[in-house]
Amino acid sequence: MSFSSEQFVAKLNRLEDSQESIASASKWLLSQHRDAPKIAESWKQYMLRKDVNTRRKLLAIYVVNHVVQQAAAQNIGHFQEDFNTVIEEVLITTFAEFSSDLKKKIARVVGIWKSRGIFSRETLNRILANFEKNQKINNSVNVNVPPKLKPVADIMKRIEKIQINAHAMKTRFDNAISELDPSSLVYDENYKTVQKVGGLAKNNIASSVQERKKLINALQSLIEEQNKLVTEGETMQSEIDFTISSKDPANATGTGKDDEDVLPTYEATDDTNGDSESDSDNSIDDDDKVKPESIGQGLSSDTLDVLAKMKALAESNNNNNLKRSNDELDNDEENDLKRQKEDNDETGMTYDQSNEDEVEGETEHVSTENSDTVTSSIQDLLSKLAN
């Protein structure tokens, strides 16, 4: 039966991580030893594919290891010679894809080949040298990993390891399901076996999911921390900009000119025309009068003291004048009443109360005139002093 590349790839895809599965595929390849060059080339193409996971590639390496050693034991030299032409390119190209655990397994296989002389020593030395160089690079990268990223890196390593087992068990479960025959006499036993395989596959997948959730939480914590640091950085930038702007001479305040504009001014108002019109009318409007609350604004303390004393003196004089006016009126009233009484006694007339009201009206009129006169004088004096 001639060799079929499609059949060979199908067997590689159905490989399981077990000695029986590896031995079965190797036995089939040994039976195709006449097509060893085609087998080596098909294996190379399979190993260089990007859609094949590292676990599948590791199992493919195990198959080659089993085939070449069996071929050496049976003196079938085709496999050693043909795989020697492709093994270096394949391993050097794909080695970086594997996790650290898988790299150790591959390096161990190559060491066995070297000790048993399976391939040429020069080829194996170049492969091992490349492995060592790659390992040093990885160690250097791991050393330079920031401390906050180490938990993430550790979770990633665990995920890679669990993922390999999860894929292997899932593949085994799929194969077991496909081979399950309901018409078989041992269907019940085969079904129980499939259940066990399915349970193992679920456990591996559950572990993978759990680790991935841990990874997501770790990454979210890092993102939240970085967002907080970004906000703090932007705040510090704003503070620096504000501080620089506040110290900019172009924005500085407090110059002499500005201070002068802020202070109130007390300039005399030219009311000459208004005074003339007021004098012609012999009257003063309320707006032109000096309001008590405006008196004293802008004057010195000494001037204010003088004004206060003058005001007190004016009030005192006003009171004295009012008192004298009242006393004089009282004396005049008494004399008038006395004379009127005498006249009444002579004429027989009675005292008329209306006279008393007229006297009181005259008294109030005199007092009001005196008070208005004094107040007007004081207001004129204070207005002049204020101006």
UniProtKB/TrEMBL annotation:
Biased composition (Polar residues): 243-254, 368-387
Chain positions covered by the region annotation Disordered: 243-302, 317-387
Record Pfam families: CID
Biased composition (Acidic residues): 258-287
Domain CID, first and last residues per copy: 1-135
A GO BP annotation: mRNA 3'-end processing
UniProt feature coiled coil, ranges: 205-232
InterPro entries per UniProt: CID_dom (IPR006569), ENTH_VHS (IPR008942), Rtt103-like_CID (IPR047883)
SMART domains on file: RPR
Molecular function GO labels: RNA polymerase II C-terminal domain binding
Keywords, ordered alphabetically: Coiled coil
Name under which the protein is recorded: CID domain-containing protein
Organism the protein comes from: Maudiozyma exigua
